[in-house]
Amino acid sequence: MSSIILASKSPRRQELIKFITEDFICIPSNVTETVPENTKPENIAEILASLKANDIYKTNSGNIVIGCDTVVICNNQVLGKPENQQKAKEMLKMLSGNKHKVITGCSVIKNNKEHIFKCVTEVEFYKLSDEEIDSYVASGEPFDKAGAYGIQGKGSLFVKGISGDYFNVVGLPVSMLARKLKEI
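Predicted structure:
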């Protein structure tokens, strides 16, 4: 029986995959996350998930490897993890009062066959004051999260509505992944 390897260092993904199975290990990928120029924003997460999964599968081919990547897209602009306070504030100002998409791409590789899929969730933010943004950035929560917020933390206070899979916004589309693993 092959083991399941999650190619991620994300503590949130590690917690969420436990809904599917307790029998997994994590081996984070250190692959350079680059996508071809002119890649549509909607396809970036799948490409990066595939890069991560294939990187780990090279040395673990007897196992099932799962790679994931989450991107936030607002006004056709990809919002990654902010590298500093100023970037975090800029991202949150862009999200303020707007709807955005959270896309998680997943790659599952088993027996040299790769299955790639994505989950899209739409999130709407309330209009945020400068004080709310400053306070949230000062909390430190935005810095390891795409789009500079965590829906499972204090960032939940900004969410006016959500259409789609909540866990996808956290970083792993649990129900979709569970169904895909059953198919495979």
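Summary: The chain has six helices and seven strands.
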